[in-house]
Amino acid sequence: MKDRQPTKVLTNGAIRYGIYREDGTLDHYEYMKREDAPTVEGTPLNKANLLSDATAQKIWSDVETRPEDPTVSQALMQLQKGTFKIGDILMTARVKPSDAWLECNGQLISAEQYPQLCSVLRGAATPNLWTISAVSNQQGAGDDVVSYANGYWFRSYSTGTTRRLMVSSDLASWSEWDISAFADVFILGHVHYYDNVYAILAHGSIYLANELFGSWTARVVEPNIDSSSRTQDWPNYDGDMYYDGTYYIVPSGLAGAYYTDSLQTGTWQHISGKTQKYQYPVAYSHAWDPVNKILYTLQVEYSESSSGYVNSDILSVIKNVATGAGTAVKLPTIASGSLLQAICWANDSLILFYKNTGTLKPFLGIYNPDTNSVQQVPGPSDVTSDGIYDMRIVYIAGNYIIITMGTTTLYMSPDLITPTWSTVELQAAVGGRKIYTRQYVDIGAADCRSGYTADDSTNKIVIALASKDAIPCVAAHDFTYDNKYLPNITPSANTKAYIKALEE
Known about the structure:
Layout (H helix, E strand, L loop, with lengths): L14 E6 L5 E7 L14 H4 L2 H7 L12 H10 L7 E4 L8 E3 L4 E2 L5 H6 L10 E4 L8 E7 L2 E8 L2 E7 L6 E3 L13 E4 L2 E6 L2 E5 L7 E4 L6 H7 L8 E2 L4 E4 L5 E4 L8 E3 L9 E9 L4 E10 L4 E11 L8 E4 L7 E9 L2 E8 L6 E6 L4 E6 L12 E6 L2 E6 L4 E5 L8 E4 L9 E8 L17 E6 L7 E6 L5 E2 L10 E5 L4
């Protein structure tokens, strides 16, 4: 707001006025001054009395949000929003004043999104980065699977005659889905939602349900393979499945795959991934490139004499399932004494995990399919070779994150070429239970396996905690919000607390 600054003023305060004819032309000027002898002078209408600079500074404490020339009307509108500063807390039974306010529910926020609020919040001395959720009050069995499909979370655990499937929409409350149809299934894999049905793969069959909590029916996928071979050729640990826009694809235990154009009515076809190199090749690990629709499976050789897997340097590359065969690619040896144990897809790259048999630390590799070359990458210094085959990596919130089975530690680095690994620990709230690494997803991913398709819009990882002889749980962590915690305030049943996070 600015005062008028006239230039035609006499020394006695008289101001010049123009006298005009009817045609709009100027006739002459006259100087006028009020001579009404008031009993009360009144308050002058000027900037100092209506909206001074000092007052405007108090209303808009942030100069960047203050209008260049604020008016009384703008000031009143701002005052209607309140004079709260960033970090101030409001408790009310009404709705929050605006989107500039966040509920005080203990959530983590990022400094990138809320820099001013994070600057005034105190850091937690012992931050609880994980939300732990018990899925039932009964002890689990040990084979733990978590998956995400059609807006719901699924947590299964099974062994022997104990099998349960739990469902949640919020990772807080869980309901049980009847799985009596799985009487002969030892381990339940991921739940998928494709072709307008829920699907679970297990022991050479696919189980389908048309609706949530509906009944399950089974379709045999491997009609020509006997039950003894199914455990070898059908991956019943994870039950991963992918969709390339035409076909639904399931990695095979013999380094190939099965595919169909319809889960409900289609005929399943087999893609061979076997090579002449190994008499007993097994797809120990696989990875899915969702952009180019390529399935990679890692072949390993099992030696009876060595009582274990002795070689794993063959990739089966399936670029087009319609061709009906995979291409075998022999990987180069990049370090003496190393053994390739697992593969994953992250940030548009095929990531390789190597163990070692000598003094060499376990390490990673980035595979270049155009040159069939591998760039060696150092892994976390405290990872042992024993856990390499059960490691997974996912790219989330600008970081590569490694998850290892049988631990309570995740490893994170913003760069994979020259990584600087930091640790993210599960807190003591998990009761000593460790990660069941094969089973983890990030919310919103196109498939259940976030190591293959990470969703940067949500950035959440959910992990099944090993539940043998313990209550089944899941642990969730949003890697977007690792900076500061909001206060956790619950005034009453009808009242909420909000904190001002942004200037308006």
